[in-house]
Amino acid sequence: MLEWLVIRRQNLLMILLVLIVWLTVMPGQPSPPSKQVLAGAWWVEQERQDYLTKTVTTRRVGLPGWWPRFWKVWQWVQSGFWLGVTSGLLWYLIPASGSWWMWLVVLGASHKLRTHLGWVSGHCIELNWAQQQRQYWASQTALIEQIQVTASPVTLEQEQSKPNSPSVQEKVASTPEIKSSPPVLEAEEDPTLSEPATEMMTTLAQIIEGLPIGTNLAMFQFLWMLTSGQLLASRGAIFPALQATGLEDEEIRRAWAAFRGGSWQIADLLTVWQAYVEAEGLWEEHSYEGYHPVGVDITAFWRPTLHDCPSKHYYAPAGKALPAIIFGMIGRVGSIDAQRIPLPRAFVRVDEDDPSEAALQKRLIEQVVLGLALNEVAILDAGFKLKALHEAGLKRYVVRLAKNFVGRRNKLPPYKGKGRKPEYGEKVRPLARTYQGKTIEATPPDRQVSWADDELHFTADIWTDLVLSDQKPGAESFNVIAIHDPRYQEPWLLATSLTELSPQSIRNLYRDRWPIEQLPLAAKQMIGAHRQFVHAPESCQRLPELSLFAGSILTHVAAKLPPIPTGFWDKAPKPTPGRLRRALTAVPFSTHLPLPARIRKKASVTDHLPKGILAHRRQAKTEQPV
């Protein structure tokens, strides 16, 4: 044996390498399904907090019963396969001393065997997040008992204020102990609280639970006012809208104070909202040839009578720009049961130093560049200029172009033998146009693609490797695609940096820009935030942000609930936010829903603070010298 090892030193080195891999390299564990990993990550994140989100934990974490058994059998089959491959190769190579590349095959096979054996030995006991959940609740017995035997602090204060009501100790003693499952945020048996209202209140509670105590209860009430559409009846007035939800005067003041000066930011709420939707598992992100669309748009909340309005936006009926609070919107696009639903990622405000719309577009594109993943594509309309995208460094985009767009070839034309040598490429006009009574013909396309979709015949004219009209060859290039739809008189003229994508995917990507416009539609027309009567600079920015956020919540909850008919005449209802808002309008803010322990009124001493008109922070206006 020693002589064999000395003669075949190559075999010795390779065997040592295989042993090193087996003893030192940690195996990679096969991943469960993506939704399962996402739900588990959400559960672990909630476990780290000082509070626990009960609804997400109990509803969304878990696997079907057949999946762990199938996964175990599959891993055992793979382990047996790689064991046979490794053993067969070693049986052949040790006596015959094979070549070095065959030993590399043995190395790879042994590593795969090590991976699966490590997984089988460590994870085949119970690969189920539900089992981990049960173990977690078993270690949190004290927390479970505390939640089961006590009501919310607000309820305790109300019960103590009643003279004939039994004491809290008596209620706790008479409360039966529940050992079957941990507490869940669900509504009690109340005929006045419908399923849509219960689902909406549960969703809002999960989103704002992490805010500071006191602020979260007030923001819960404020968001309920928005999603229930009370601003429509009050024509944008906040105090009457809050009163219409059934709140007391002190609760209205606290909700207003939390909205105006509370310790919250819309970016944090959007982060929690994205995590909640993804962990829920109902929303599926769209993908075309491996790329996910990210819609980008600008919206405006008109404020024509607001003094010192920081920004303006073009209003087509007036033919000019009018005072408005404008925002940039960034959102991913997915669907719930074939209904396209946007998931907002960020709302971008105007710059205080430069509140122009051009500066907002620049900030918006820069933020898109920072947050765009490698498999995501920014989808923009014709309001964004192609030159601005290149200057900001946006690498993956689909943008609509103007009908009179002109580009250039990314190569120099041949020299004609006399005159100055050309420095720019030939001009390319994708669409024909008329100038001073003369028709300028379109440039023939480099190639043409046709396809059929839903019994419609589409044609795409493609011009490849183009640069902007003021750029020389060597600049950043792009493709231009003119998609002819038989339902429209004029084609879509799109530019994209993704030259490898097919015209069908480019068309589908641009169609997914439209869901981002659902957010202002739901915020203005459905919720009633198109009229706003706030005047403080921060409130003028916060109310539109919360309105867009509430519109996203209303759209998502409506899509996952059964369609709600408006009346007997609504024979084929659809799960739209307008129908859900009508169902929520008649429901007052309910105190029958047992909220998590963190959502409560903060016990702060406020007797020494001024109230009402005396608490207004007014500043005397100083007259400017003439």
What is the oligomer described by this structure?
single chain
**Radius of gyration based on Cα positions:** 32 Å
Our estimate of the beta-strand percent is: 15-25%
What composes the largest sheet? 13 strands, mixed
Tell me, briefly, the overall form.
Answer: globular
Q: What are the segments in which pLDDT stays under 50 over at least 5 consecutive residues?
A: 25-37, 50-62, 125-191
The count of DSSP E runs of length 2 or more, i.e. the number of strands, is: 15
> How confident overall, as mean pLDDT?
78
What is the terminal separation in angstroms? 107 Å
Give helix % range: 40-55%
Total of DSSP H or I helical runs spanning 4+ residues: 22
Q: What structural category arises from helix and sheet content?
A: alpha+beta
Tags for this entry?
15% strand, 626 residues, globular, two-stranded antiparallel sheet, alpha+beta
Report on this model:
The chain has 626 residues and is α+β, with helices and mostly antiparallel strands. Helices cover 44% and strands 15% of the residues. It contains 22 helices and 15 strands. Strands 1, 2, 3, 4, 5, 6, 7, 8, 9, 12, 13, 14 and 15 form a 13-stranded mixed β-sheet that branches. A two-stranded antiparallel ribbon has the order 10-11. Strand 10 (433-435) and strand 11 form a beta hairpin. The protein is globular and about 90 Å long. Residues 25-37, 50-62 and 125-191 have low confidence and may be disordered.
